[in-house]
Amino acid sequence: MILLAACGGNGNDEYPTEETTEPIEPITDQTTESSPGNAEPIEPITDQTTESSPGDTGGSDSDTVVIETTPELLQELGDLIQEYKEVYQDTNGQSFTLFFSNPAKGDFDNQASYQNPGNFTFNEIKSKDPRELSWAMFFVTDQIQSLRDEWSQPVIINSGYRNPKHNLLNLSPPGASNSQHMYGTAVDMKTIDMDGDGDIDTNDARQMTLDATDKGAAFVSTPDSYPTHVHADWRTVRPCSNTFLAVAGECN
Predict the structure, then answer these.
(1) CB neighbour list of residue 148: distance below 8 Å, 6 or more residues apart
(2) Residue 169 burial (CB count, 10 A)
(3) What per-residue confidence (pLDDT) applies to 102?
(4) More confident residue, 158 or 67
(5) Measuring CA to CA, how many Å separate 113 from each of 14, 77, 80, 83, 209?
(6) Residue 2 vs residues 5, 64, 119, 137: alpha-carbon distances, Å
(7) What pLDDT, in 10s, does the model give residues 44-94?
(8) Angle, helices 202-214/141-151, rounded to nearest 10 degrees
(9) Distance of CA 200 to the CA centre of its chain
(10) What is the distance between the alpha carbons of residues 78 and 197, in angstroms, rounded to a whole number?
(11) d(Cα 239, Cα 141) in Å, to the nearest integer?
């Protein structure tokens, strides 16, 4: 959780899609009440392979981190939260709003408040939106660090947090309309050589999905279909700052 202190001054069920900066189609920016929407759609797995960096544990041991930030950063955070309230269109032209429509400011971290679990920097988990956003919502650092420790080898994150506009407008085809990446509970990892045979194949992806499930993942991708990528999400770990989510049992 973070507390923001403004200061003066001028001045971050699933299948593959590439993270690209080509917009799909602009849509109307209007605000509506959230609705549960449709059942969770198949989520894309990306094909970006940015090298993972070891990093050091950062942040604070306290649950509350007080961050001094500028008016510009606060405005960016407000605009980011607004993305969750807008009306979007699916590939069939049907309008929809997001299930998680009102995240709290305290659900987000920036470079200063993010706590590196050991091997995953803020730049690795934040959205790949070309606007280079300063804020990210990501609740599963402990889970992916636990997997990395168990595997004892670098883990490359293809996609961590995705803000709604990046997920729904920049990806081709668009990301799932209820993607867990937008809620900070999902990660796409490049498949690694789990059995040490020098090849990346279905057996490696299958072992990674089994290990992620052992770590409490609620959903993992199908290794037989996409052996080079592993998607895992822990959709019930986000905090119940959203009343609707709390009632629906979609958080803790």
Answers:
(1) 118, 119, 120, 154, 155
(2) 20
(3) 80
(4) 158
(5) 30, 14, 17, 22, 30
(6) 10, 5, 21, 11
(7) 333 333 333 333 333 333 444 455 578 999 999 999 999 999 999 988 889
(8) 130
(9) 24
(10) 48
(11) 14
Strand partners, 5: 68
Q: Of all helices (H) and strands (E), which one includes residue 75?
A: helix 71-82
Q: How many CB atoms lie within 10 A of CB 60?
A: 10
Q: Which token pair is 172? A: 């081709």
pLDDT one-digit tens code per residue, 27-42: 333 333 333 333 333 3
Q: Please name the CATH architecture into which domain 46-248 falls.
A: 2-Layer Sandwich (3.30)
Indicate the domain borders of the chain.
46-248
Backbone angles phi, psi at 105, to 5 degrees: -55, -35
Structure tokens, 148: 């990395």
